[in-house]
Amino acid sequence: MTAPANPGPERGRLIAVASGKGGVGKTFLAITLAHAMAARGSRVLLFDGDLGLANIDIQLGLVPARDIATHVGTAAGVLAAVQPCPPCGFDWLPGRSGAAHLTALAETTLAQLLHGLRAATDRYDVVIADLAAGIDPPARRIAATADTLLLVATDDPTSLTDAYAVLKLHAADGGSTDRAVVINQVQSPAEGRRAFHTLARAAENFLGITPRLAGTVRRDPRVRDTIRHQTPLLTRHPQAPAAADIVALARDLTPERRVARGGERVPAAGAADPGPPGGRKDA
Ligand SMILES: Nc1ncnc2c1ncn2[C@@H]1O[C@H](COP(=O)(O)OP(=O)(O)OP(=O)(O)O)[C@@H](O)[C@H]1O
Ligand SMILES: [Mg+2]
């Protein structure tokens, strides 16, 4: 692991990025959020938790030196596969595409993986896990272990219906009550808020749970452009509307952490000043 241990008793926050329906923008959002949080000075680990169909490396144009497929179940554990992503300012725990055995991990191996992610919160302010779409057991388990469920949906009715199913199972699994929703690919923030309220009303009425709106992200042709060029949005198009939306989301989701002296809670380093996206302020 490349980050030093957290100074105080505070742990970082594990955020699970999930969705019911696939292709809603989880991986793009997880990468851009990690980038924006790192630019604010947080120590961030991005885990490619789409086990067996990993594609953070594709979106970032990186070739992993090692990945969890070779480390899961070993004595060193999955964190031995952590490596830096220098242009992004965060560390990265790669998955492996086409590794079918990762989608059907044995209970003990899955437990080791969850333990590794928890252990990572000792060293990072934020650990972001980009999950597979849907309700397969590994995604459910990681989501249920997380401090925050970051549920991504579009305003498409099928996406909202599937997001509702994720909320239902997350509650049944005893997951954290911090359930934050992002409505992605919206024409306007107002349209995104309307979609969120539809979902939230159903969750409150039928499940008795109250998700919160973490933010909306506008549909933006530059997103596709950055993915095609395998470059982070905040590097290639820092002024894009979608970039602004995710920088705002990062501000909302950046955890506070305890400073060594005085014990008062302060925002993580750099949080008061979002600064220009696109790189670590301390780089
Ligand atoms: N805000 C946006 N504006 C325009 N296009 C977007 C936006 N967000 C995501 N996309 C497009 O959606 C596509 C899918 O994104 P991504 O791979 O991140 O989704 P995913 O939810 O991780 O998919 P999967 O469920 O297969 O893992 C991308 O090709 C991207 O171009
Ligand atoms: Mg994905």
How would you explain this protein's 3D organization?
Helix 1 (26-39) packs across helix 11 and helix 7 (157-172) packs across helix 8. It contains eleven helices and ten strands. By secondary structure, the protein is α/β, with parallel strands linked by helices. The protein has one domain: Rossmann fold. Residues 258-283 have low confidence and may be disordered. The protein binds adenosine-5'-triphosphate and magnesium ion. Adenosine-5'-triphosphate binds next to helix 1, strand 7 and helix 9.
Count of DSSP strands: 10
- Main sheet: strands, sense, barrel: 8 strands, mixed
Please name the CATH architecture: 3-Layer(aba) Sandwich
Low-confidence stretches: 258-283
Overall form:
globular
Structural class: alpha/beta
Note the run of SSEs as H and E.
Answer: EHEHHEEHHEHEHEHEHHHEE
Helical run tally: 11
Helical fraction equals 25-40%
Broad CATH class: Alpha Beta
Provide the list of bound ligands, each named once: adenosine-5'-triphosphate, magnesium ion
Please summarize what this structure is.
With 283 residues, this protein is α/β, with parallel strands linked by helices. The protein has helices spanning 26-39, 56-60, 68-71, 100-103, 107-120, 137-145, 157-172, 189-207, 221-228, 233-236, 241-253; strands at 13-18, 44-49, 83-85, 90-93, 126-131, 148-153, 179-186, 212-218, 256-258, 265-267.
Please describe the topology of this protein.
Blueprint: E1 13-18, H1 26-39, E2 44-49, H2 56-60, H3 68-71, E3 83-85, E4 90-93, H4 100-103, H5 107-120, E5 126-131, H6 137-145, E6 148-153, H7 157-172, E7 179-186, H8 189-207, E8 212-218, H9 221-228, H10 233-236, H11 241-253, E9 256-258, E10 265-267
Parallel strand pairs: 1-5, 1-6, 2-4, 2-5, 6-7, 7-8
Antiparallel strand pairs: 3-4, 9-10
Helix pairs in contact: 1-11, 7-8
